[in-house]
Amino acid sequence: MSNLEVFRARSSLVSAGVAYFIIAGMVFQSIYLSDFFGAMSALCWGISLAVLVYVVMHRPKLELFDEGIRITNPIRDITAGWDLVESIDAKYTMSITVGGKTIYAWAAPAPGRHHSRKIHPSDIKGTGIGAGGYMRPGDNPRTHSGAAAYLATIRLNSFRASGQSPVRAFEVRTHYNLLIAIGACASLALLFNTLHYL
Prior knowledge:
5 helices; 198 residues; transmembrane helix; membrane; transmembrane; three-stranded antiparallel β-sheet; five-stranded antiparallel β-sheet; alpha+beta
């Protein structure tokens, strides 16, 4: 992967940080006020919730590089060479189409429909977006989906113009270990909670 660029919504990182802080506060309070089993139950619930926050809010991202794109969703990583990417869209969230299948990126959601009222002509000047007189809210480069789609489109166009040899790379990796960690911690929390009340 050459010339790597990572796209991740800053608001997601801030929200995840706030969630981690709240979870840690609740766990420390429970450990301080409870007996051993109650404290262990709180610790396991805290770990389970923290991993869930990581999976849903912290982990999703886009990685753009000269040869292709990697979309990191909660439990799945999809890597595709630019030569396999048929189109890029930002209707519901930023997405790519590979082999007729649409792959959505959790890291770049589209805004609500009321966002279109806030679009100013200067937002899209020189981007070539909305050239037909109509632009969906998700296409606005000031939104997560629009910014990610715009950056990906630039990379795709550069790849096509460069005449590089096709990479023909497509890989999907599923991280079941994250789901197992959440389930295991939740199960331990229930066990300790039961022992606490015996």
